[in-house]
Every structure is written in C-alpha cells, then in structure tokens.
Amino acid sequence: MAGRDGITAHYQRTSLAEAMIARLAEHGIERSAITLEHLATLDQMHVRGHEATVELFEALGVAAGMAVLDLGAGIGGPARVLADRFGAQVTALDLTPALCETNRALNELVGLSDRIAVIEGDATELPFEDASFDRVVTIHATMNVDRKRSLYREALRVLRPGGRFGFYDIVAGVAPQPEYPMPWAGSVTHSFLVSPTEMRAIVEEVGFTTRLYQDHDQRLAQPHAAAAGAGSCGQGCG
Ligand SMILES: C[S@@+](CC[C@H](N)C(=O)[O-])C[C@H]1O[C@@H](n2cnc3c(N)ncnc32)[C@H](O)[C@@H]1O
Q1: Distance 198 CA to ligand 1 centre (A)
Q2: Following DSSP, what letter does each residue of 46-111 receive, concatenated?
Q3: Cβ count near 32 (within 10 Å)
Q4: Which of 16, 38, 107, 191 has the most CB atoms around it within 10 Å of its CB?
Q5: In whole angstroms, what is the distance from residue 225 CA to residue 231 CA?
Q6: Residue bearing the CA closest to ligand 1, atom 7
C-alpha cells in the first residue's frame, strides 16, 4: 500500500484507549483514578518519552494561554503535556483516524477535552488560516513525510509573527538505511529519513531562522540507536 494509506495502515490501531485502560487496571489503577502521570508511561510515541517532550516545549518557551499546533500528534501524549503542564490551548492534528479517536478518548478521560481540539488531517496541507498559532511543534512524525518542504512551509504560514516552530525527529545516520520494520514504518516505502544537515537546510530554505539545534545521538538508548542505523535525533527551533 503506497502513500498516505500505507502510513495510516501502519499506525491504525482501534480500541487503543480501552487497551491502555485495561493495562493500567492490571496494575491496580482503576479508570476513575487514571491521571496524566499514569498515561505518560504509555502515550508518548517517541524516543525518551515524556522527558524529551518537556525539554522541547521548554526550549520553545511555551507559556500559558498560547495557541499551539502539534503536527502528527498521535494519541495525544505531547498535546496533553502542552495543555496541562504548559497551560496551552492545543490543536492536535494527525493523519491516522484511529489515533485521533484514541487521542479524544484519553483527553475526555483526564478532563482535557476543552483544551485540545483533535483534527484529522495532513501536516503538509493544513486546514488553518495564516498566522493562527504562537507555536507549532512536531515530534517523531516527519520520518513519514516525503514532502518535508510543504510541511515546513505550512508550519511557517500558520505561525503568528514572532512565533516559533520546534521539532524533535529521527534523522538519517551514517548507515545507508535502518533495518525495517521500524516503529514508524514497516518498510522503506513509508520512511523518508534525511540527514540533520539536509533537514536544517530545508527548514531554513522555507524561511525559518534556527535558534537552537541539538543532536541527541549520544543520549539515545543503545538498542534503538543501533536499530535506527546510527540515526540521530534532532531537536530544532526555528
Ligand atoms: C511515531 S508517531 C508520533 C506521535 C506523537 N507525535 C508522539 O510523539 O507521541 C507519528 C505520527 O505521525 C502521524 N503522521 C504521519 N504522517 C503524517 C502527516 N503527513 N500528517 C499528519 N500526521 C502524520 C502518524 O499518523 C502518527 O500518529
């Protein structure tokens, strides 16, 4: 299966919220007692989980009341951190319908539905007016995006003057390709890794100025780093 359908098929998991609730119940945590801290052990679909999420949002200076757009939001772990810990008003956009459903169900569970709007859509064609957001973020999603220029251009278009864009992604390493399946793609058909240099060049080419760039290669857990073909993670703020 090619294109977007192949990507959504890779991520499509139904009843994920119920499966997570059942998993927590196995550890003695009942549905009514579930907190964001409990979910944080399960809902961050990226390397270094919750810790990395908080680092990125702190680096971006996310503050209470800001309108923040999360591209490729998955089941909404980072979006809930933005809404709860940083007090942002969040729009969480994702391509995969089942993950959007899970995102909504988990927001409802922890009482954050009024702070997070979940939108099904493609990060390369955003359904938002120009200058709608104070911050745009994306975490571990651009590996699935072939049209990276379109995504970064769209991020710039929807940012207000003085806004910031932050990303945390897996990038190509020194090895030619990782061995698939990888967490983000079953095969190379749906994986579009670029080198950190190329990624920065594209981001700057569309009009961003880099304020901060960090290579987290050394901080990755060894098994993942090896499996990713010595891939490194970049965290950038434009
Ligand atoms: C590895 S998950 C990361 C989810 C989330 N950012 C997190 O860190 O918990 C990648 C997500 O990107 C989404 N995605 C991939 N391509 C996309 C696109 N073109 N537009 C929007 N979402 C996309 C997938 O559906 C998936 O939910």
Answers
A1: 20
A2: STTHHHHHHHHHHHTT--TT-EEEEET-TTSHHHHHHHHTS--EEEEEES-HHHHHHHHHHHHHTT
A3: 6
A4: 107
A5: 6
A6: 45
CATH of the domain at 210: 3.40.50.150
> Best of 8, 11, 16, 75 to mutate for ligand 1, by most ligand atoms within 8 A of CB?
11
> How many Å lie between the centroid of ligand 1 and the Cα of residue 72?
3
179's CB contacts (< 8 A; 6+ apart) are 227, 229
Reported pTM? 0.91
Distance between CA atoms of 48 and 55, rounded to whole angstroms?
10
Residues 113-159 have pLDDT tens digits of 999 999 999 999 999 999 999 999 999 999 999 999 999 999 999 99
Q: Could you tell me which of 157, 124, 125, 143 has the C-alpha nearest to residue 199? A: 143
Residue at token pair 């591209």: 71
Whole-number Å distance, alpha carbon 28 to ligand 1 midpoint, is: 30
Print the domain residue range for 203: 3-237
Paired tokens of 214: 């960090």
Percent over 90 (pLDDT), the chain: 67
